[in-house]
Every structure is written in C-alpha cells, then in structure tokens.
Amino acid sequence: MTAIRRFYGRHPLHLLALLAGFALVGYVVYSIEPRTLWNTDVWWQSILVWFFGAIIAHDLLLFPLYALADRSLSAGLAAMTARRRVRRPKIAPLNYLRVPMLGSGLLLLLFFPGIIEQGRATYLAATGQTQQPFLGRWLLVTAVLFGVSAVTYAVRSAIAAKRSHGPPAPTTAES
C-alpha cells in the first residue's frame, strides 16, 4: 500500500475513483456514438467545440480571474485589519464573502442570457412571459445570499466572542 502511495502520490482509492470516472465517460461516449458530438452542418454548434471551448475559457481565462479576485479580497481584508491594528477575528470573514460571491456568480453565468434579455422573442413564444424580472430576481437572490452570509457570520462571531469571554477553564493544579 505504501509503495503504491509513494509511486502514485495519493491513496489508491483516488486512482480507483479516477479510473472509474474515465470508464464512465468512455462508456457514455461509446453509447451515444462519437459522431453525435459533432454537428456537420454548423461546426460551432458541436458539443465538442463547446466542451473544449469551456475548458479553455475556464482554465485559461476565468480561473486566473477567480484567483486574482480571491487574492485581492484576501489582501484587502488583511490590509483593513492591519491598518486598524485590531486583533484578528476568531472567525475568518473570507469564506462568508466567498460563498455568496460564488453563488451569485454562478447564477449570473447560468441566467445571463435571460438577464440581458437575449432571445426575447423565442422566450416569449415558448413561455408566454417576458424576461424582464430576471435581473431583479438575480439581484434579490444575490442580496439574500449576502444577507444570510452576514447574519451567519455575525452569529458565529458572537458565539466565538462569548466563548472567549466565558468563565475560565478549570486548571489541573487544583486537584
């Protein structure tokens, strides 16, 4: 077991999970037949083009932007606490900003065509409704995500402050 871990670098179950995932993908591609992944009429509408485009767009463009935003957020929080010369909070606020930002960003990515009202006529014909409420609803969900995160952070901070100012722990020397 240690020889496998030393050679592979991870636990053997990690390798087994990867192989199972690749086998599943291979089975799916085999089942749907690879020729269905390519549109011979309009090449840019092919599943393969969009798949590789998403990989390139995410890994080469978006991920560095995520990392830059996260580093900027971390540096900004560090600069704010250093400037005020206060002690570091017991509960780090970073994840309470990351989670609602991630949720809001994913919702924006998912509903962006509706938010900018792209395909207005098609959407109206298919549903009988307009895309007008998309922007307001996205803003509302974003506000709720940040609000819930702020309340959760406040509660966790209050609990941590109460614990640190509670009665002193008994010492073992009294026994």
Please, could you describe this protein's structure?
This protein has 175 residues and is mainly alpha-helical. The chain has 6 helices and no strands. Helix 4 (94-115) packs antiparallel against helix 6 (133-164). The longest helix has 38 residues, at 47-84. 1% of the residues are buried. The chain crosses the membrane at residues 12-30, 42-68, 94-116, 136-155. This is Lipoprotein.
Can you lay out the helices and strands and say which pair or pack?
Layout: H1 2-8, H2 12-32, H3 47-84, H4 94-115, H5 120-127, H6 133-164
Helix pairs in contact: 4-6
Q: TL;DR of this structure?
A:
The chain crosses the membrane at residues 12-30, 42-68, 94-116, 136-155. The chain has six helices and no strands. With 175 residues, the protein is mainly α.
Features:
175 residues, mainly alpha, 3 domains, transmembrane helix, membrane
Averaged pLDDT, please?
85
Radius of gyration: 25 Å
Shape: flat
Number of domains: 3
Major β-sheet profile:
none
In terms of DSSP E residues, the strand content is under 5%
SSE order, one letter for each helix or strand = HHHHHH
Total beta strand runs: 0
User: Helicity level, as a percent range?
Assistant: over 70%
Taking pLDDT < 50 over at least 5 consecutive residues as the criterion, the unreliable ranges are none
Pairing-aware structural class of the strands and helices? mainly alpha
* H/I helix tally: 6
- Terminal CA distance reads 47 Å
